[in-house]
Each structure stands twice: as C-alpha cells, then as structure tokens.
TrEMBL record:
This is Glycerol kinase. One of its GO terms (cellular component) is cytosol. Residues 262-451 form the Carbohydrate kinase FGGY C-terminal domain. It comes from Litorilinea aerophila. The lineage of its organism: Bacteria, Bacillati, Chloroflexota, Caldilineae, Caldilineales. InterPro entries: ATPase_NBD, Carb_kinase_FGGY, Carb_kinase_FGGY_CS, FGGY_C, FGGY_N, Glycerol_kin.
Length: 500
C-alpha cells in the first residue's frame, strides 16, 4: 500500500511540497520562493508560469530527497494563497496577464462603483464578504476591462479563470478546470448557501459564467483527476484534496468542532473560527467563509479575521528599509529593548482588512521621538502583528459570545518565540504551537488522504495533534490595556489617507 500523502502548498511568497506519513509527520519537503512583482504603488503581481515552475521543482526535489517514487503516494492535495486571480487561454494554456495577488488594491474604483450602485448589502448577504479589493471577482473584472481583447475572448468562451489551486490542477492534470468550495467562497461570486456560482453576482460584476471552474468539495472521493505522466510526478497520482491555505491550516490544526479556532502567521495573518454547519453573520467586521466540505458531508463554515500584513511587514523591514538582514533577526533585536519606546507601526499597506475594511487607509509609523531607534521600530513591527490579532480575536469573541481562552497558532512567523510571547501578553490569553507547525500543508494532505481512505475520518486525525510549546501572558492588565490604547490611537491615524 502507498505509504505517503503529498501536499502542494502554493503560498504568497513560496511554494512547498511535503510528504506526510500516516501519523501526520513530515517525511520530506522542499520549498522555493517566487518573485514578488510591484509594478505600481498598491499593485502586487506574480508570474503564474513561475509558480508552476516552482511547483514542478519542489515536487521533483522532495521526491528525490526522500527517495520516494510517485507510486508510493496514495494521493496528493493542493492548498494555496486564496483570491489571487489568474486568467488564461483555454487553448494555449497561457495566462493573458500576471496573477493579481490578494493584497493588490488596483480594484478600489471597481469596489467603490459597486458600493455606490448599492450592491454592498446584497453581496454581503450572498457571499459573506464585504466589498473589498481583497477578493477575486473585482480582479477578474479588472482583467476583462483592461487587457486588450480579454472581454471578447471571455465572451467567446476562450478564457478561463482560476485561483492558484485551479491553475495548478489545470497544469497537473492537463486541462481539468476545477476549484473547491473554500476557494470559490473567496471570489465574491459564490452563494454561500447553494455553494454554486450566482447568476446575479456574475451579472453585477459582468463576468461570463463560462470562465468559471466547476466547484467541488475540499476532499473529493470522486477525485479532481490524476497527475499526468509527463508532469512532475511522472506517474498518475490521484488528486483528492483542494482547499484555501487558511482553511487547510484549520483542518491541519484539527479544529473540527464549532468554537475551535486557529491563527496562521504567514505573509498575512488569518484567524478562523469553526462555526459548524451554521452560516454565522458577523456584526464586527469578520468574514463568513466556507471552512471545508469533506466528500458528500454538508459544508462547514467559519468566521474569519483576515489581516493583510503580518510576516510581510517583517519582509518590508528587510527589503524596503533594510533594517534587518533576515526575518529571524527580529527576535533578538526586538528583545534588546524593554518596550516599543512609544512607537507604533500600523502596516495598512493594502488598506486595513478585518475588522475595519478601510481601503482608504495607508501605513503609518507614529510616536516618533529622538529616543526611538531601530530596535523600537522592529519591535513595533512585531507588535503590529499581535495587536491586529487582538482586534480580530475581540471581534470573534463579540460575535460568538464565547471568549477564546487559548489560541492555536501556526505558520512561518511562529518560529519566532519572542513574537509568540508578545502575542500571549497582548491577548492576555494562552498561545499554543503544535509540533507540526506546517499545518497548511498538513490540512491539504488530510483532505487528500480522507478522499482515498488513507485516514478513515476527521476524528481519527485529532490523535496526530501534539503541542510543541505554550506561552502564558507575563504582563499585567494595566500594561496590556495601556499598550492597546496606544495601538487603537495609532490605527485612527491611518484613516482617510487615500482620497476617493
Ligand atoms: N523568525 C521570524 N520572525 C518573524 N517573521 C518571520 C520569521 N520567519 C519568517 N517570518 C515571516 O513569515 C512569513 C513566511 O511565512 P509562510 O508561512 O511561509 O508565509 P506564506 O505562506 O504567506 O508564503 C514571511 O512573511 C516572513 O517574513
Ligand atoms: O500566503 P499566505 O499563507 O499568507 O495566505 C494568504 C491568504 O490565503 C490570503 O487570503
């Protein structure tokens, strides 16, 4: 019997391929970054061909490292940065434009028009999403409006849309055009109740239905297809799992019961709270989204607090300000000062996402005096991740009425132990990091493994979750609240920066 499950994790900054065994332990992996393209202020793009190339490379390198043949894989799952939008020609397979990344704000005018035309409430009721530049629908519309000949070609049925999962499935299978419910729930085009594309939403955004992929469960016993023999696996491996990366991390953290939540610290930071089969509407700026759908089971929903800039703020310190040489340095530098020296950094680089949804906001560093030095700014950058998380957690507590006392964390930035201590201090709650912090890939592996019977059911997966380390708050209430009040004040300074 095949002993492993493979997971492709195509993130905002890099792609990984991982092999997992029956216990959910990592057997081997490889990871490669792709280029971040910033053509103008507020624009963020990726090259879809580069993402596919990196995917091929990490698959080949992982199999070689582990000395595993593709025939030893029971199935492969895919997980991906969500909302990032690719449009390609169905005949040539060539993208008509770069991928427009979830952080990109070029669709602000389209979003404003949708609001002004009074579609905001309808869109929110249907999709659980506020009208914001974050989501895929307005990005597709932008491509149809701005790429020469694109609208006509789309109307002729020659163009296909996909998020990154769909792009990879298309390339891996040689032409299957499929997405899953979690990714579809981030397009602003899917009805959260019917789990199908909605004709009225398509009409409002002017998007031909023929461009859209088939929507399937996140774990599909009918399979999305098999990998092609002439592709990176050089074998026909079943493709059985597909879900957005934040939903995948929720599955990887085994948050299968209503009330269970996780927070993932990658490029952005995303907290998801499982709300079961109920569609819960937020009163506090959170999204309602599909958490997962396993086979023929009903879909499970989640409330989500999305933060656009988390680890990316650290990258900005490194690449744009050159304050640090690598992300790991932030741990020692931030600890070298006792506090932020009165300085706050609010990274509203893509506007502010949850709970504000302000596309008119832009980043600020405030509270500067001659006392403030590099270490204070580095510390303020780490604190910004934790304060944004506190705002989202408060919104979740208010919506669910049940305060979360401990938070399961994962993602690339959780290797920073000082950041985790800051998080416990700023939340006043316990922070728990699991042994396998690569929960995004693990969630995709679980979805694929469940599809082919490698694991029997969701409950059996809980036994694979083990705590690696936990952090308790170490500061008092007064200090915590004073720091938070400073943060709240700093946030107000970001508003109304971009004039309509
Ligand atoms: N030691 C660290 N301290 C703070 N941030 C870190 C550290 N190591 C990595 N990061 C941040 O984590 C992010 C990478 O995490 P990852 O989960 O791979 O992201 P993604 O899936 O979004 O590509 C980067 O933005 C990086 O700046
Ligand atoms: O690439 P990540 O892990 O920061 O995730 C990006 C999110 O999916 C965007 O919604």
């Amino acid at each position: 019997m095949a002993q492993y499950i493979g997971a492709i994790d195509s993130g905002t900054t890099s792609t990984r391929f991982m092999l997992f065994d029956q216990n959910g332990a990592i057997v081997a992996f490889d990871q490669r970054e792709h280029t971040q393209i910033f053509p103008q202020s507020g624009w963020v793009e990726h090259d879809p061909q580069e993402i596919w190339e990196r995917t091929r490379q990490v698959i080949g390198a992982t199999l070689a490292k582990a000395q595993v043949r593709a025939d030893d894989l029971a199935a492969v799952g895919i997980t991906n940065q969500r909302e990032t939008t690719i449009v390609w020609d169905r005949h040539t397979g060539k993208p008509v434009y770069n991928a427009i990344v979830w952080q990109d704000t070029r669709t602000a005018a389209i979003c404003r028009e949708l609001q002004e035309a009074g579609h905001g409430d309808f869109i929110y009721r249907k999709t659980g999403l506020p009208v914001a530049t974050y989501f895929a629908g307005p990005k597709i519309r932008w491509i149809l409006d701005n790429v020469s000949g694109a609208r006509e070609a789309a109307e002729r049925g020659d163009l296909l849309f996909g998020t990154v999962d769909t792009w990879l499935l298309w390339n891996l299978t040689g032409g299957r055009h499929i997405t899953d419910v979690t990714n579809a729930s981030r397009t602003m085009l899917m009805d959260l109740e019917t789990l199908d594309w909605d004709e009225e939403l398509l009409a409002i955004l002017g998007i031909p239905r023929a461009m859209l992929p088939e929507i399937r469960p996140s774990s599909d016993p009918d399979l999305y297809g098999h990998t092609r023999r002439d592709g990176p696996f050089q074998s026909e491996v079943p493709l059985g799992g597909d879900l957005g990366d934040q939903q995948a991390a929720t599955v990887g953290q085994t948050c299968f019961s209503p009330g269970e939540a996780k927070n993932t610290y990658g490029t952005g930071c995303f907290m998801l709270l499982n709300t079961g089969t109920d569609i819960v509407r937020s009163q506090n700026g959170l999204l309602t989204t599909v958490c997962y759908q396993m086979g023929n089971e009903p879909a499970v929903y989640a409330l989500e607090g999305s933060i656009a800039m988390a680890g990316a703020t650290v990258q900005w310190l490194r690449d744009n300000l050159q304050l640090i040489k690598d992300a790991a340095e932030t741990e020692a530098i931030a600890q070298s000062v006792p506090d932020n020296g009165g300085c706050y950094l609010v990274p509203a680089f893509s506007g502010l996402f949850a709970p504000y949804w302000r596309s008119d906001a832009r980043g600020v560093i405030v509270g500067l005096t001659r006392y403030v030095n590099r270490a204070h700014i580095v510390r303020a950058a780490l604190e910004s991740i934790c304060y944004q998380t506190r705002e989202v957690l408060e919104a979740m507590n208010a919506d669910s009425g049940v305060p979360l006392r401990s938070l399961r964390v994962d993602g690339g930035a959780t290797v920073n132990n000082f950041l985790m201590q800051l998080q416990a201090d700023i939340l006043g709650a316990e922070v728990l990091r699991p042994r396998v912090a690569e929960t995004t890939s693990l969630g995709a592996a679980y979805a694929a493994g469940l599809a082919v019977g490698f694991w029997p059911d969701l409950e059996s997966l809980r036994a694979n979750w083990h705590v690696d380390r936990r952090w308790q708050p170490q500061i008092g209430e007064a200090e915590r609240e004073a720091g938070y009040a400073g943060w709240k004040k700093a946030v107000t300074r970001t508003f109304n920066w971009v004039e309509a």
